[in-house]
User: What shape does this take?
Amino acid sequence: MNDAPAQGPIYLHVGTPKTGTSYLQDVLFGNREVLAKQGLLYPADRFDGQFLAALDLMRLPWGGLEKEAVGAWDALARKVREWDGPVIISHEILATAKPADVKRALKSLGHPEREVRILASVRDLARQIPAEWQENVKHRRSLRYGRFLEQIQDPERPGKVAPWFWDAQDVPAILGRWAAEVPADRVTLITVPPPGAPRDLLWERFVEAFGLGDFKFDLHTERANPSMGVPETALLRRLNRAATKVVPPKHYRVLVRELLAHRTLALRTESPRLGVPPEVWSWADTLAHGWLATLEERGYRVVGDLTDLTPAPAAGEYADPDHPRERQVANAAVEALTALLVEASRLREVEEELRAELAEARSALHKAELPFKERTKVRAYTYASQRPWGRKALAAYKRRQG
Amino acid sequence: MSDTPQQYVARLVADAATGLDRPRQEAVDALLERIAEASVPGRGTMQSAPLRLAAGLLADEARRRDPGPAPAPRRPQKAPRKGIVIHGAPLAAAATRAANGLPDLRPSRPHAVVILARPLDEAIADVWASRVWGLEDRTWGGLTATLEALDRIPYEADVAEIAAKWVRKLGPEQVHVVTRPGPLVGVTREPLQVVHPPVAAPSVELARVVSQTLGILVDHDTHERILHRVLRPVLPTGPGPGPAVRGKLQPWLRRHADRLTADAAAGGYALHGDPTDLAPRGQGTVRWPGSDHQQPALLEVAVRTLLALCEESP
Assistant: This one.
């Protein structure tokens, strides 16, 4: 980064979900120490540190995780103010911040005295819609896809899902909130390339938008964020209907979202992919063109191409997750059950080991509590019973005792 | 709703505050400024936005009035050696102890156990309210759905199981199951006043929503302190519409009520009242305390509570 000001700018990446944000955040977190030595701060002590800060800023309950977020935003803002070089803050749920949250965030970061740049990575609605529905399903919801599509298209935004969807996806509205007091030349849109584009193109756009070209870091990350297909998502939705009443959120996160969704069902890449029906595609296309016009008018910087926001033509026939092929769902269910059986077997082995350790610890405690004479007797008995001559002697003793 | 949530809540507060004397009016004016600047926390329906805003404000206002931790006692409180144990529906048990000047800590060698029973639907509502006050974020609908799916009732509502446990410990002569509020003679020297506090769904649901925001703002101990020492005293506690078990779950409720009634009749311990008192009374009217239909009732309670806080300590 050349010609950097005295205190480097803050790159505040506010969304949107499902636009490669997890990969970006994983790379930044994994390289945070290396980047800090090169002058760039990614303030996070844990991989979800900035997520917790966002929860704190917006006072967002999140299945109990919010209890770990107390004070997280102020702590992050303090680190940012104390850092002279450039800073990156990135979390996609910041897209849903209300005007009062935005005001508090910017003020805490030192705006307007400190330069803040707002960035938003954006993708076409025809891909965002099914991706968001799937995220809802992975977070315990059992709303049918058809109902989801109705609700998000309804101008009244009924229910709980539609308001959240638009708070997180309405790009002009998101930037209207975040960039209300930021000049347009400090607002950057990063467009996700259309399907079929080179794999690295999105990363190249992130590098350009965040000015990461001069920094050296390792792009490898452990976490992949694959999507489930139609039968897998249908299965998970049905499972939610039965399971969410009886499986607490903390166990659901580990067993359903991580084990089943991410590590089992998402690996089935041959199944039909989620999409939108033709009429929804047309509606999304019309909406996207309206957004394009608004965003062009506002004069934001664009890395990529604004036309990437218009949906690409659908590839293949639409597969309705509310009416999936039952054989495909059954096959997915067998894989899911197998994964759960493997995990249950592993947990049973862990339980057995723990029981054995507990028995040993209890025995040791019992021995420690015995008076000296008793402890000596127990040691002598144990010693003798492990030797042939000792076993003979003990047997003879027992016979004499009757 | 054409108003923003901020405008809507401000209007409700201004209307409710009409006629207050000057110092209180200044506090209300300051509150109205805070309302204008406030954000809507959490996520939910569009209809719930004003309530979430009001609940967020209540959390902030309550937090401003945090009395801070009490000084540590010179000596840790010791449980009394002798006395009676009051068990069962937790709010009823706490209210009964308070009404009779009994300590919260259980005696180590009780000479009698008094188990407070309520009609099963009211006992479950009592448990729900107690858990909300215990900082648990459970909706009424979620709690009852989970219990039904597991085919269980909460332990504190299962007077037969509690009684059986104490019979094993102390013998049947020392165990008393009480099914009705009012004076109970023959267990203590003076009649024991048994209290069944009402569970008003709007107050409990509001406490739950405020608690959600408080849980994000402060640590556990501070959360507990603010909820009990600042918010609870100003929340309306009188009779109000109680939570109702919805129709789909009635077979589960009836099955467990029948079991309790039969077990209580055959328990062999002293039963003060009638086993049929354990049957659900069905007087609750609010099946979904947090639903959009309930928003006006919840907002009314929220606004009254905000103003009560302003009146208590501007």
Notes: Residues 295-312 of chain B form the longest helix (18 residues). Chain B has eleven helices and six strands. The radius of gyration of chain B is 21 Å.
